[in-house]
Amino acid sequence: MSVTPPPIYSPPKQEANLKADLTELKDALSQAAQAPAKPEIGKKHFNVENPAPVNVFNYTGAVFDDDEEEYEHADLLPSFPEISFPPLGEIPFTDRGHFANPEKANLYAEVATQGGSVKHHTPVLGVEFQGVSLKDLSEKALDDLALLIAEKGVVVFRKQDNLSIEEQLRVGAYWGPLHLHPSTGVPRRAGLEHVHVVYADKGARPDPTAFSKIELFHSDVTFEAQPPGPTLLRNLVTPDVGGDTIFSSGAAVYASLSPYFQKYLESLSAVHSGYEQAKGARGAGQHVRREPIETVHPVVRVHPVTGIKSVFFNAGFARRIVGVPKAESDNVMRFLNEQFALNHDVTWRVKWNKDDVVIWDNRMVNHSALFDFWPERRHAVRVTPHAERPESVAAYEARTGQKAKDWAEERYKALGIQKPTLDGGVGRKERGFKD
Ligand SMILES: [Fe+2]
Asked: From which domain of life does this come (predicted)?
């Protein structure tokens, strides 16, 4: 069966629009709703009699034990309906951060009205809201929040137990048309095809052949021409211990490099591929809903609202640097991934509680989800708005007439001091450890 729903989810502002679109999508997928209540699922991954399927990216949430009938979030368990989506065309997008108050006055006023609190974590990453209901923020506050996420990479809203999946979709769709994932699990409940399900339980036994979390630092679906902006993940069930997510800042990686290497990276592009993920899904016996593509993106992109430069590279989807010798490509990619995965100065780690919502700017940060909690259950639902086509430094500066910015330089400027510069080594003492 092949059903073609609308290619993008686009109720950008009003709840009425959202409801209309949900109804439309529901109608379009009414046939798909007849799909088996218990779809083909991934126990076959670890079937000793059939060891062949390999799930290349093991965050598809495809493997689970299906033996609990009374599970409270059963409607949001992953399914793999046999529906097909057309290729994505150009997607209109305007960043809501352009409409923000630079001081986020609307957002902070509403946080105060709700009696909530806000805590900033490291200078480059992380803001945490306690006692704030995300679904009750006004559109003006959501504009401010879009800017805050662009500036701080990741924000956490604790305890959003009053946020329905429809409200999570509404907030995401306010920031951009929602992405339909080509292969990973979507909720069993029909009409939620824009939701990406993350799920693991005791059936998801650790795979000794899987990629390590170093290789799995990634930014979501960067093979798309317009990869996501602010991306919302809500944890419905979290393990008591473990299951943290580590975020890593591309702006801080960029700022940590020498001006020579920064310039070199700014001249490069990389191929991002969806083929391996699709192959992994097919290998696991799952239907691929949209044919895979490859897209070339700049290795350094500029955020359209903040003007901050960020290394836009992830080992999950980037396959090669364009137009340089293979050995050079391999080593540049290895080096960049090491900076994201191993330089803890550019990372921030989120410890989840049940019903927390984490929103990250997928343009500016990579992330890696830890799988250190087996055999406990982890269940999360992601809403993923498209953003603009990544823009290189040269393209941004030509379009805006503005110079793109280095995150650390801006920070030092705000502190009234100059970013330390390299002196070519002349007169500089050799560095040593202090420990
Ligand atoms: Fe991810």
From this structure: Eukaryota
